[in-house]
Design a protein that fits this description.
Rossmann fold; 5-stranded parallel sheet
Length: 238
């Protein structure tokens, strides 16, 4: 991977191996349970359906507001409590009971080694995880993966971003914010639709195959592909 000075990493399914559907099926009922335990009268299935609609609102975000605002503006009409109270409950959940969801992931010893090896070689590292979670949830998932958040010069979360993958504008925003030249960057991700779209901006990609996602069976166009172990060997030989 010649001329790579910056690596953007996806988190879920990439540095934190998981099957996305299994992860969601595990933690969504926990989220519903946390609201019920707090005395909020919600029906679990309807609540989970509403959260998915809130997620869709973030994915469709047009840049006019943050993803956090897009999500809660949808949820405020659904939940029988104020947005402030509801978000406080969500943040409490993500700081605590959400951590049970590590059981639905398969942390790899290579994740931390890859990031640290890149940094040792003078490559800048960023966590370009889809900004659909609050920061507290993302910090916990970084910890599940056995990594140190301080190793990333940027971590994208729903508080600070107004686009989501697979909207190429998310990646454009990141590159512009950091002042990066596409030809000097590499995107490492596992999702064919969400992560490889950055190639439209001239960024090379490494598709991680350990838990590759390609729900739409899209044609795979990537510069490199392989396991995390193979990526570690590539980075250490750079």
């Amino acid at each position: 991977m010649p001329d790579v000075k910056h690596i953007l990493f996806d988190l879920d399914g990439t540095l934190l191996p998981m099957v996305q559907d299994e992860f969601v099926k595990f933690y969504m009922p926990l989220l519903a349970k946390s609201y019920i335990s707090a005395g909020v009268p919600v029906e679990p299935k309807a609540f989970i359906k509403a959260v998915w609609k809130g997620y869709e609102a973030m994915v469709k975000n047009d840049g006019s507001r943050t993803n956090r605002e897009a999500f809660w503006s949808y949820m405020e009409d659904i939940l029988p409590v104020s947005t402030e109270e509801s978000e406080a409950l969500a943040l409490k959940f993500y700081a605590n009971d959400f951590n049970q969801a590590i059981k639905s992931t398969s942390p790899s010893p290579y994740a931390d080694r890859i990031v640290k090896a890149a940094k040792e070689r003078g490559i800048h590292t960023y966590l370009a995880t889809n900004p659909v979670f609050p920061r507290v949830a993302t910090m916990n998932r970084i910890r599940w993966a056995g990594m140190d958040a301080r190793d990333f010069e940027l971590i994208t979360t729903y508080e600070d971003y107004s686009y989501c993958k697979p909207n190429v504008e998310y990646f454009r925003t990141v590159l512009q914010e950091l002042g990066l030249r596409p030809e000097e960057c590499l995107m490492v991700g596992n999702d064919v639709e969400e992560d490889l779209v950055i190639r439209e901006l001239g960024v090379k990609t490494y598709l991680v195959t350990d838990t590759m996602e390609n729900k739409k069976n899209l044609p795979i166009h990537t510069d490199y592909m392989g396991t995390l172990e193979e990526l570690f060997k590539v980075v250490t030989s750079a």
